[in-house]
Amino acid sequence: MQFSEIVGHDDIKSLLRSQADGGRIPHAQLFVGKQGVGKLPLAVAYAQYLNCAHPHDGDSCGECASCRQFARLEHPDLHFVFPYVHKHTEETCDDYFSSFRQWFLSDPYGAVQDWIAFQSNDRKKGEIYANESERIITTLSLKSYQAKWKTLIIWLPERMGEAGANKLLKTLEEPSPSTVLLLVSDNPDRLLATIRSRVQRVNVPALSAEQVFGWIRQHSTEVGEEDARRVARASMGSLSTAKQMMEDLLQGNKRLDDFALLMRTAWGIRNLPSLDQKGDFLLRLQEWSEKKSGESRDEIIMWLQYCQRLLRENFIYNFKRPELNYLSVTEESFSSKFAPFINEDNILPIMKLFATAERDIGQNVQIKIVLTDLALQLIMQIK
Ligand SMILES: [Zn+2]
User: Fold this and answer.
1) Model's pTM, two decimal places?
2) 76 alpha carbon to ligand 1 midpoint, in Å?
3) 147, 175, 205: which is the final residue of a domain?
4) CA of 54 to the centre of ligand 1 (A)
5) CATH code for the domain in which residue 152 is found
6) 101, 276, 323, 363: which has the fewest C-beta neighbours closer than 10 Å?
7) How many domains are there within the chain?
């Protein structure tokens, strides 16, 4: 990864470059900042720059043997420690490095929860386990294969237990020559004070809304310009947050269609004058619940959660205070017509219907029964 591939942070890139060019390379640095601002890509690009055979124009060359290995995270002197969910206590990061590499290369700004979801089906918290410290010590004591600088990147050292952190402290106190330690932390306050005092801190700030907007436009053709602006503003300068919001937005359009159809049909059955029309709508409702039952339980649960958010937003929409609303362009155009149907009298009973359906789906009640029941009860609430 080259500096040029990383969004923004010109000051930090130039600081890292001048350290490397001037031969004043700190033994250990701690990259600090919130999730999704690019700390891990910066650490990788810095390590690549340190080892590049022909750096020029303020960046690694991207072409020498070392750069080519770095681009695939396959350099023998580049080592990683990262949190994961283990299956056996004797495992180490080595056992998951090839999936970590695959994940990082596809999503360099990804958040730790994205990585854990990629790595494991267990819904556990990823950790850096105690036996990792032995591996760190061994790795650092070995002579480097070919690189000028052997690099160990520890992603999220705050996820180490105390025993592991104390061993890490030892390696920070007795640095091996030609070795660079790069710690990358979302939460430096959770590190031992003795670790923090032995590393040079690099603060990586949030990106500007303009930088996030540029990145969205470059990476997604599906999100329209106005939605991209709204996401960029709401992302607080984090590309992992922006990415999550864009996924929700694109999913949201499909989820919105289902929500709109359900509400329109329920309204029709209650309010249309002729029995014939009511019958047509009832048939439509039946077809809809039939089709929706084909989706996975996880997707239906997410849809039911989406509906609850949308109901809240529509209720708020009636107060005409846009600063309290977060709606996409499509959602807003829907809400401008739908919001009046949600009021003080029905918001709580309707929310409860969706919450109950969400609970029942989670408890393995038959999907079609839950959805049909939800639809029938909605008929009583939408006037
Ligand atoms: Zn190079």
Assistant:
1) 0.76
2) 15
3) 205
4) 5
5) 3.40.50.300
6) 323
7) 2
